[in-house]
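User: Please fill in residues for this 473-position structure.
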């Protein structure tokens, strides 16, 4: 399967302005606020003009139980910080409480995260886009009936299940510093999904992802694990990523790809131990994009939030095929990026414990495993199940395009380039204007700002909400 030179693709981006409000609790390393920071940065870079921005629907319990158990989703739906005492036994059973705390809006957070990935898969299936991005997704540790590693609902598995309705073979690639165990486990016995995970291994969460974990039954050799050591740098990462993904593409021949872009593999991450730069991390996106396959990009880990937003903004630009300046534009979180206020970061001087000999040994072993695969396995022809989301709406065809619509109707329509939603949240005196970030309370919401000299109507507002379309059911 040959790669093609860079070309501009139709890119869809999923974001809900509420996602940054959720708060795991004081001292918890997972901060959904990083998704809002990313969004604000790519708005100020002007990247919003080059892609379609959608507000995802909230995934329903029915959608989430396509993978998760009914009782687990029922539990997530009912648990709240003020009724935890009565759920004691269930909390232990479902592994909720410590790493995966109960917080206000937990279920809605899961709905938004999952809704974005399911909607992205539907969009790719309809061939309405070549690349779909959901930075609010990528929660790869969640299991069928268990929360794990800050993850409650596995949006990736739900997205892949949707892709499998139209695609014979789906490739999942994970560049988070932690092993993508929840996704691997979900597809461990099938030959229709190949999972490839590059991760730190050895006395490190979640403790899985050995080189010898290769799948089982029909899925034998369809789980590919690349166990790495501390200090992985850009050059070493590229030296193993490119040949392994090239061989996987050639052998497995997927018709769609999902890339989990966990940013905790960056240098200086609060929980990570690799030494990748934003450019090195982004090269993975660049390489996968060249295969010109339907491509879903999701978020994941990342606990030094200024670097997470740098990486995901840069990778959005890579997906769009446009270059952005290293000098950061002024944005609502500008002070986070001091003292240099640059997009790109430098590696530290930590030693890379992944020797060329060690990496060569891994490659050799994995190539032997990949040779065991039947070439491009097929699947029996069957009727295509119904899409998870019905994007068509009869009422939209009857709308007078010149008539001003209520907000709820506007939310259901694609907003053309350079247009923004009106909202009581925006502008001076709006709800956003009255909030500030103090101590460890919820992060402040974005202020708004009109920029002079941009080719857009005067009433447009640069806002955290951006041009969005509600994914309609």
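Assistant: Residues filled in for all 473 positions:
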């Amino acid at each position: 399967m040959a790669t093609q030179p860079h070309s501009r693709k139709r890119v869809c981006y999923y974001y809900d302005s509420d996602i940054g409000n959720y708060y795991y609790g004081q001292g918890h390393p997972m901060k959904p606020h990083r998704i809002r920071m990313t969004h604000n940065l790519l708005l100020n870079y002007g990247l919003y003009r080059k892609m379609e921005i959608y507000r995802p629907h909230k995934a329903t319990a029915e959608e989430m139980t396509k993978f998760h158990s009914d009782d687990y989703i029922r539990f997530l739906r009912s648990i709240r910080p003020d009724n935890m005492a009565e759920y004691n036994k269930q909390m232990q059973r479902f592994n909720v409480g410590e790493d995966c705390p109960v917080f206000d809006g937990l279920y809605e957070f899961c709905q938004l995260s999952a809704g974005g990935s399911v909607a992205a898969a539907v969009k790719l299936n309809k061939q309405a886009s070549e690349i779909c991005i959901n930075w609010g997704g990528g929660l790869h540790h969640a299991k069928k009936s268990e929360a794990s590693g800050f993850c409650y609902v596995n949006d990736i598995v739900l997205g892949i299940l949707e892709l499998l309705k139209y695609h014979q073979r789906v490739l999942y690639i994970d560049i988070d510093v932690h092993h993508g165990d929840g996704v691997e486990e979900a597809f461990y016995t099938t030959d229709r999904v190949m999972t490839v995970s590059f991760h730190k291994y050895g006395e490190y969460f979640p403790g899985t992802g050995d080189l010898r974990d290769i799948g089982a039954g029909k899925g034998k050799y369809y789980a590919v694990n690349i166990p790495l050591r501390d200090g992985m740098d850009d050059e070493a990462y590229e030296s193993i990523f490119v040949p392994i993904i090239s061989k996987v593409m050639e052998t497995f021949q997927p018709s769609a790809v999902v890339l989990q872009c966990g940013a905790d593999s960056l240098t200086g991450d609060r929980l990570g131990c690799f030494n990748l730069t934003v450019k090195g991390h982004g090269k993975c996106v660049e390489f996968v994009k060249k295969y010109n396959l339907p491509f879903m990009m999701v978020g994941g880990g990342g606990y030094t939030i200024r670097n997470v937003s740098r990486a995901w903004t840069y990778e959005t630009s890579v997906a769009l095929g446009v270059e952005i300046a290293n000098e950061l534009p002024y944005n609502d979180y500008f002070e986070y990026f001091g003292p240099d206020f640059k997009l790109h970061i430098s590696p530290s001087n930590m030693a890379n414990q992944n020797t060329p000999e060690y990496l060569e040994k891994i490659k050799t072993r994995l190539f032997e495993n990949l040779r065991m695969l039947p070439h491009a396995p097929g699947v029996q022809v069957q009727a295509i199940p119904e899409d998870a989301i019905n994007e068509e709406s009869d009422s939209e065809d009857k709308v007078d395009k010149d008539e001003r619509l209520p907000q709820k109707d506007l939310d259901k329509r694609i907003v053309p380039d350079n247009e923004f939603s009106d909202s009581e949240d925006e502008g001076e005196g709006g709800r956003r204007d009255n909030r500030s970030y103090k101590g460890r309370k919820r992060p402040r919401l974005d202020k708004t700002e009109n920029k002079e000299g941009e080719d857009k109507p005067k009433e447009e507002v640069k806002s955290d909400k951006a041009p969005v379309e509600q994914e309609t059911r």
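For context: The first strand starts at residue 11 and ends at 14.
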